[in-house]
Specification:
heterodimer, A: 582 residues, PH-domain like, 2 domains, five-stranded mixed sheet, 14 strands, 37% helix, disordered N terminus, disordered C terminus, B: 717 residues, eight-stranded antiparallel sheet, four-stranded mixed sheet, globular, Myotubularin-like_Pase_dom (chain B), cytoplasm (chain B)
């Protein structure tokens, strides 16, 4: 199957994007884990690895953007004896491994290994990402989707209690925050600077979302720098009180620390910590027990072990449970539900943080916003949500994904964003009519999270992106999606305004996202197209057809009636006639 | 239509069916509403009749909270005596199973039902006398052994007016004609015949009046061992291969008897392996599938997971949910049964081999496998009337011991095994994997499973056709009403009005285009082509010509190898199953052709609608599959309205009342528990797990780390 937007020129063996250049090709044996060895030719460009089998029945095609490659290993040595034991083993970030057997003669392997390594890990070789060479053209410009000012205006901001500040215009206050921030009207820029000194990496509490009716807000930040000695900061304490007061309610401010209690305590040893009751008497603190990035990485690794290449058969359910993957999903969703419910029915403003406020915090605020604000459940709204809560607020995509970086064992890597998308998928599964986008939309986002074809997820923060001129030199993933929206649209979507959508974070409902995690396994592939969707589309077509024919019939009938209108016509018929004609 | 007596007085009285008698009652009973963990409840009267236990709300104004799928016989607070699973009493916060005589009477009564409902009744405010009477009454009538004739079935049949819907399309298989038609429909009549040998039940009381055997089997042979050791025909595949079942001989102590039986069987095998019959493969289900005991144990554990007392209970089991499910083994049994059915399908479909299922009585696992094979291979069995006819053929007439297996009479726990539920769960797996291939919905399967416990239908309340026939005449009892006329469960109008019956029909199902004789051939050809695999012979009618062309020697050779006792699948190339399975799944699905279920671990699921439907914590407001289904139903109605309008425009008739009242389906408000939801939670409070924290023992070192290690204290100095 072809990648979207790819031009397949007639005379070429392989698809090529504008700006994509051929580097090398070679005959290999693809060691398909499902169907056994396949003789084929592999083509390597500056964007992808493409394999096509030599035999045509059936044609086996692999189309892998080099960005998804996490690790390339040589297998077997010059003395390897076994059949197909000499070649390359490629680990991918998207839940699969590729193995190619090569001939031992010549330097065939060394050449291909070097070419692959160079183009799969451009950052490690002082090369540019393919996104900077990509010359695709789209009818929509995805970079225009998110404009912070208009998003805040959509929320009704600024207002008499909340103001927009440009204090971070040149990233002087916080280099991992966006330039535009919304803060309490009653806090001066000077106050903000003082608060920044007491928050890890200067990530001060700023507004993410405001409830349109009760004015309660979702704030995000990093941990306070309490340390072993239990330091206090009057400015921070006062700032939190200003936030509490800003929604006009007298309730306490609720602080959700995403971490498990023990980890929050342990952080004191390195200067971090959490808001104590003594220092913040007007706040209530809850721990949400979500684990750190290392636990999540290990969990995904275990998940891959039980689904790739073969799905664990005999004890599927207990194996799945032992990966803890769904349990983590449950905890993240549970936390987000609590945040959303507190804001919506508890009418209290909330402050969410973890350690640095760019991983678990982003998950919680964005999921809570998805639950509370139906705008984010549209295609464009979701793009805004990702752009705002993840990209602009400095989720470290470059470090977590390791774009173009050969250091596959980097401890900074972690599937935090994947976990978020999985949570969104769980919600869309539970509420199949509530989201404008379909599963393909989510899968496409994940595919391009790794592909490096678009600038959208490159780099760690807005400040770096600005320096690298990402919006000028690369294309946005949203250009691809918004130019072909129908492909990503859920036909069952029905727009509902202002309805809070709470998923049930119970294992009885959560399920493994088979169409993503096990999509490479031909035995598990789901029925495509989905019969329910297919039937719905058929009915839609039938309805439109009937409506058209009915209209035609009415026109002919009416003209017949008007021709014979001299004869007795009932008043009601006259009426309908009149209505039709004007 | 069933007449229901209206309450005579203003006071709340139970609605009684014809023949139903009020046995005891207690007032000022509180029924807890298990919705939100609070101790809220409604006050009312608890009554026990010879049909049901019922709670009568003092405040009967709450009628607008009626479920969408309203059952005319059983109200939302009614529990038929056969539906009671276990009764617990609560004494000082401690739960105790109640069975026989009681010394002390409980403050609270918890009734767990076989349809997975859980009722909590508080008796603290009830008069002691009444507590004694109602508790012992309920226990006596629902939990202690009973005589068959004491079943409500008989009281009802003698008191109720006889007006069954005769237009039912279900084939009952109680006449010679029904079997002949079935043989003709499946083109089995060349090699198989209906026999009348058992008229008057002179061969066996376990066998039906009429059944089908290979033409070459003589009457004497059938008579010899009371029908044991005789291959009985279930169904013929389009290629002529047939599915047969056989009741095995019991383990014989006596050597010479065993020898004789063996010789008899060898004779049988020889006869039915000669042309015109295909090769024969036997499968002893009692050794290749879990035992009835295993099935009963698994189900007992499994259902317990869904009988939840309160919210805390729900969340406490949530973290370990997957391993709890696995430890019951129920889903694994479903997987094994489906796998066995696919193996049989592969033999019939691809190897053109007759398959003979063997089991002690041929009335339990034989029924499961033969029904599943037909559901998978014969699209007629996936229509409502076809499925019902199948249940009649294989189960009701086929002699499945419903009375014993469901333990309706509480006479012996040892005989109890949820064999029919196992079939329904397997069929549900198919329904959810191929939602467009069935004329009926999962709701149909759910209400069918509920009907197992409604003793006004004879369908599930006899062990055999013989038992039903001998008890229908009413010879023994004092009743002079003559032969009883029982209702059949297939008359759905008894339980549901037309509006509710609409939930049983699948809007995704597209009927097979009705072929006439000439088209039928092409349809079949297509069917075969789609299934063609390397091993398949695509020659027209390969099976008959095949043997005639071979030498006797070769036949003997093959047969000798093939019919050796209990050949199992290991005899074939080991990957033959996998190859068939993969090859089928790599092609597009023909919803009117063969259906092969996926049996990977990820695909075998919990029948959520049946098992989770009463649990408020899992409810999704405006979510679940019903959300999309409702959209489809709405659109279908719109299309229908347009059709009517168009017809009118064509005839230019003045519009009548074309706007039929659409069902009230505001998808935003529908609960995922629809159409069973009784819970109308007013608030939109989300369900929040109460216990989530779990130690990740094995990852201690990782857990303790921070995301990124940076000493923040240093830059503070």
């Amino acid at each position: 199957s072809l990648q979207d937007g790819t031009n397949w020129e007639k005379n070429e063996e392989i698809p090529r994007l504008p700006g994509e250049t051929r580097v090398t090709d070679k005959d290999v044996i693809y060691m398909c884990p499902f169907n056994g060895p396949v003789k084929g030719r592999v083509y390597i460009t500056n964007y992808r690895l493409y394999l096509r089998s030599l035999e045509n029945d059936p044609v086996v095609v692999l189309d892998v953007p080099l960005g998804v490659i996490s690790r390339i290993e040589k297998m077997g040595g010059a003395s390897s004896r076994g059949e197909n034991s000499y070649g390359l083993d490629i680990t991918c970030k998207d839940m699969r491994n590729l193995r190619f057997a090569l001939k031992q003669e010549g330097h065939s392997r060394r050449d291909i290994f070097e070419v692959l390594t160079k183009h799969a890990f451009p950052q490690s070789h002082n090369l540019l990402f393919f996104a900077f060479a990509n010359e695709e053209k789209f009818s929509e410009n995805g970079w225009m989707v998110y404009n912070p000012m208009s998003e805040y205006r959509r929320q009704g901001l600024p207002n008499e209690r909340w103001r927009v500040t440009f204090i971070n215009e040149h990233y002087g206050l916080c280099d991992t925050y966006p330039s535009l921030l919304v803060v309490p009207y009653n806090a001066t820029d000077d106050d903000l600077k003082k608060v920044a000194a007491f928050r890890s990496r200067n990530r001060i509490p700023v507004l993410s979302w405001i409830h349109p009716e009760n004015q309660a807000v979702i704030m995000r930040c990093s941990q306070p720098l309490v340390g072993m000695s239990g330091k206090r900061n009057k400015d921070d304490e006062r700032y939190l009180d200003i936030i509490r007061e800003a929604n006009g309610q007298i309730s306490k401010l609720t602080i959700y620390d995403a971490r498990p209690n023990v980890n929050a305590v342990a952080n004191k040893a390195t200067g971090g910590g959490y808001e104590s009751e003594d220092a913040y008497p007007n706040a209530e603190l809850f721990f949400l027990d979500i684990h750190n990035i290392h636990v999540m990485r290990e969990s995904l690794k275990k998940l891959k072990d039980i689904v790739y290449p073969n799905v664990e058969e005999s004890h599927w359910l207990s194996s799945l449970e032992s990966t803890h993957w769904l349990e983590h999903i449950k905890l993240v969703l549970t936390g987000a539900i609590q945040v959303a419910d507190k804001v919506s029915s508890g009418r209290s403003s909330v402050l969410v943080h973890c350690s640095d406020g760019w991983d678990r915090t982003a998950q919680l605020t964005s999921l809570a916003m998805l639950m509370l604000d139906s705008y984010y459940r549209t295609i464009e709204g979701f793009e805004v949500l990702v752009q705002k809560e993840w990209i602009s607020f400095g989720h470290k995509f470059a470090s977590r994904i390791g774009h173009g970086d050969k250091n596959h064992a980097d401890a900074d890597r972690s599937p935090i964003f994947l976990q978020f998308i999985d949570c969104v998928w769980q919600m869309s599964k539970q509420f199949p009519t509530a989201f404008e986008f379909n599963e393909q939309f989510l899968i496409t986002i994940l595919d391009h999270l790794y592909s490096c074809r678009f600038g959208t997820f490159l780099y760690n923060s807005e400040s770096v992106r600005e320096k690298e001129k990402v919006t000028e030199k690369t294309l946005s993933l949203w250009s691809l999606i918004n130019s072909e929206k129908s492909k990503y649209t859920n036909p069952f979507y029905s727009k509902e305004l202002n309805r809070a959508l709470y998923p049930v974070a119970s294992m009885r409902h959560l399920e493994l996202w088979v169409n993503y995690y096990i999509r490479w396994n031909p035995r598990i592939r789901q029925q495509q197209p989905n019969p329910v969707e297919q039937r719905y589309m058929e009915l839609l077509a039938l309805r439109d057809d009937y409506m058209r024919r009915l209209e035609e019939l009415q026109i002919t009938n009416n003209s017949k009636i008007s021709n014979s209108s001299a004869s007795s016509t009932s008043p009601s018929q006259m009426m309908s006639q009149v209505q039709t004609h004007f | 239509e069933i007449q229901i007596k209206e309450p005579i007085e203003k006071e709340v009285n139970p609605r009684l069916l014809p023949g139903e008698l009020l046995l005891c009652e207690a007032s000022t009973v509180y029924k807890y509403i298990h919705e939100d963990g609070s101790n809220r409840g409604t006050c009312g009267k608890l009554v026990c009749t010879n049909f049901k236990i019922a709670f009568l709300d003092d405040d009967s104004a709450s009628d607008d909270n009626e479920p969408q799928l309203k059952n005319k016989i059983i109200g939302e607070n009614d529990i038929t005596l056969q539906c009671v699973d276990q009764i617990y009493g609560v004494y000082d916060e401690k739960k105790k199973l109640l069975t026989g005589q009681l010394r002390k009477y409980p403050e609270k009564l918890i009734i767990y039902c076989k349809d997975l409902r859980v009722f909590n009744f508080c008796l603290r405010f009830t008069k002691e006398e009444e507590v004694k009477r109602i508790v012992s009454g309920i226990i006596h009538h629902s939990q202690t052994p009973k005589l068959l004739k004491r079943l409500f079935l008989f009281s009802y049949a003698s008191a109720a007016p006889n007006n069954t819907d005769e237009r039912n399309q279900t084939v009952m298989f109680d006449t010679l004609e029904d079997w002949r038609n079935e043989l003709e429909r499946t083109k089995g009549n060349v090699q198989y015949k209906v026999v009348t040998t058992n008229e008057g039940y002179r061969i066996s009381e376990k066998l039906p009046l009429y059944f089908v055997v290979p033409i070459c089997v003589s009457e004497e042979t059938i008579l010899k061992y009371e029908g044991r050791g005789i291959p009985i025909w279930c169904w013929s595949c389009h290629n002529g291969a047939a599915l047969l079942k056989m009741s095995a001989f019991p383990k014989e102590q006596d050597d010479s008897t065993a020898q004789m039986q063996k010789a008899f069987l060898d004779g049988i095998y020889k006869t039915i392996s000669k042309p015109p019959y295909e090769l024969l493969k036997t499968d002893d289900l009692s050794s290749s599938l879990p035992s009835l005991q295993d099935i009963q144990t698994a189900y007992t554990r499994y259902k317990q997971l869904f009988l939840i007392d309160n919210s805390a209970d729900f969340w406490a089991t949530d973290v370990k949910w997957f391993s709890l499910l696995e430890s019951t083994n129920w889903l694994e049994i479903i997987r094994r049964v489906l796998k066995k059915a696919i193996e049989v399908v592969e033999c019939l479909e691809r190897q053109h081999t007759n398959v003979l299922l063997i089991e002690e009585s041929a009335t339990d696992l034989c029924c499961v496998i033969s029904s599943l094979v037909q559901v998978m291979m014969d699209s007629y069995s996936r229509t409502k009337s076809g499925f019902q006819s199948l249940i009649q053929k294989e189960w009701v007439i086929g002699g499945h011991g419903f009375l014993d297996r469901c333990n309706h009479l509480h006479q012996s726990d040892k005989e109890e095994a949820p064999v029919f539920l196992l079939l329904l769960d397997c069929v549900w797996q198919l329904v959810q994997q191929y939602p467009a291939a069935f004329e009926f919905t999962e709701t149909y399967l759910t209400v069918l499973s509920d009907s197992l416990y409604v003793p006004i239908f004879s369908t599930f309340f006899f062990n055999s056709q013989h038992q039903k026939d001998t008890n229908t005449t009413g010879e023994s009892l004092e009743t002079q009403s003559g032969p009883f006329r029982f209702l059949t469960v297939w008359d759905w109008s008894v339980q549901f009005d037309p509006k509710a019956q609409a939930f049983l029909n699948n809007p995704l199902y597209a009927e097979k285009p009705k072929p006439d004789k000439s088209q039928r051939k092409t349809a079949r050809f297509k069917h075969q082509r789609q299934l063609s695999c390397p091993l398949t012979q695509t020659k027209s009618s390969p099976k008959r010509g095949f043997f005639r062309e071979e030498t006797d020697h070769l036949i003997k050779n093959i047969l000798g190898k093939r019919i050796g006792k209990f050949i199992n699948s290991s005899d074939e190339p080991p990957n033959s199953f996998r190859e068939f399975y993969d090859s089928w799944h790599s092609k597009p699905v023909d919803y009117h052709g063969l259906l092969v279920p996926r049996i990977d671990g990820t695909e075998i699921r919990v029948w959520a609608q049946r098992f989770l439907r009463w649990i408020p914590e899992v409810q999704l407001h405006g979510g679940g599959t019903i959300a999309t289904a409702a959209r489809i139903l709405d659109l279908m109605e719109e299309v229908e309205r347009l059709q009517v309008k168009m017809d009118e425009e064509h005839s230019q008739a003045v519009s009548g009342n074309i706007h039929a009242v659409p069902m009230l389906r505001d998808s935003a408000r529908l609960s995922s528990l629809f159409p069973f939801a009784l819970i109308h939670r007013q608030s939109v409070k989300p369900a929040l797990p109460t216990s989530t924290w779990k130690d990740l023992e094995d990852e201690d070192d990782l857990v303790k780390r921070d995301d990124e290690f940076v000493d923040l204290s240093s830059d503070m100095l």
